[in-house]
Amino acid sequence: MEQLKKYFLFEERNTNLRTEVLAGATTFLSMMYIVIVNPTTYSAGGMDFGGVYLATIIATVVATLIMGVAANYPIAIAPGLGINAYLVYTVILSEGVSWQKALGAAAIASGIFTFLSLTSFREMFINSIPESMKKSIAAGIGLFIALIGLHNGHIVMANSATMVGFGEMNDSTFILTVVGLLITMVLLVMRVTGAIFVGMVITAVIAKIFGYLELPATPFSIPSGFDQTFMQLSFDGMGSLSFVIFTLLLVTLFDTTGTMLGVGRQAGLIKEGKFPNLKSALLADSLGSFVGSFAGTGPTSAYVESGTGVSAGGRTGFTSFVTAALFILLIFCQPLAAALSSVPAITAPALILTGCFMVADVSSIDWFDYSEAFPAFLTMSLMPFTYSITNGVGVGMITYVILKICAGKFKEIHPLLIIMAILFFGQLAL
């Protein structure tokens, strides 16, 4: 026990075993919804629910353990909701790319991500993107996720006259989604631990009472379907997916780094602007993405829900160790998770509210500097309106470069950003 405390620096970070265990459990409860939402998302792209379910757990456990044991940070990592929604709804469904090739693209992006994590280029790459673009990209992905949740929950539906319209209020899915959304929002306002997951459970109970949910006779069993996703990725025709790979890399870089810095500051682990064990922390995410792509899911990301564990007192990697251990227990809950995913209204509120969380940072964009505001607006609005994260990022970068040049602020443009804008222009034009 003493060696454990010494390794994880309990004394130096002013914590103890009981606090770390409680913090790990808190983070687990806050983010365990991903084992239902992520497989449900990939099921829409033709993948086996059970295989993706197990792949989600594997990627989460591997990445979170590396983060905890090697980097000693109380930060959990799991497949990112936004980037995986992009992979399914834009790449697989909209562009018609097979899920095997989509996972191949994710593996290549993860490999590049791993290489960049070992060099200083990653920091230079991130610094080349202006803050307004970073925040608008996150917000755009949030709106994209929210639109998916609203559509799955039948709140927003296709309409021939107005393109989109309000759902039918007598639709059972509409009603259940609204009820679940209200319950979850109330729980979040009351700061209930694991509010999103608790909201899903309450919505599931309501769905069961009114006959919309059929629970399996055996809710727990040995997982199945992993053979349908494990090592099924394909690297054929990757040349045509170069911008998919670039987008995966770009979004993952921003998402993970931003979350790690935010939670690291919250935990008081960043001293004088320095992030100790940074390379190990970055490797945790990149290796989790790499393992996940071969197991049968998309890129991983540091989870902002880790902040709930930090709020509960988590200060060391043992918090992450506990979170990973609890995720292992979910391996045998596949039948129950599959049943919950069969009712869209149970998972829709999680998507909608996650989108809300991701939009928060736009308040700090300088909306009165039009050379910043217009590109930011186009970035975040085109993602949901064109159903493509790539379109939003591309148009945003191109517009940013053009407007800065016209405003006589050429020196504010990083050379890498100019290169990316040219590449995106070529991709959009062709």
What does this structure look like?
The protein is mainly alpha-helical and 430 residues long. The longest helix is centred in the middle third of the chain and has 25 residues, at 242-266. It has a two-stranded antiparallel ribbon. It has a two-stranded antiparallel ribbon with strand order 2-3. The chain is built from 19 helices and four strands.
List the helices and strands and how they pair.
Blueprint: H1 2-7, H2 17-31, H3 34-43, H4 49-71, E1 77-79, H5 81-94, H6 99-117, H7 121-127, H8 131-152, E2 156-159, E3 163-166, H9 172-189, H10 195-209, H11 242-266, H12 278-295, E4 300-302, H13 306-311, H14 317-329, H15 334-341, H16 344-359, H17 370-385, H18 389-406, H19 415-429
Antiparallel strand pairs: 1-4, 2-3
Helix pairs in contact: 2-14, 3-4, 3-5, 3-15, 4-12, 4-14, 4-15, 5-8, 6-11, 6-12, 8-16, 8-17, 8-18, 9-10, 9-16, 10-16, 17-18, 18-19
Highlighted features:
430 residues; mainly alpha; two-stranded antiparallel sheet; two-stranded antiparallel ribbon; 19 helices
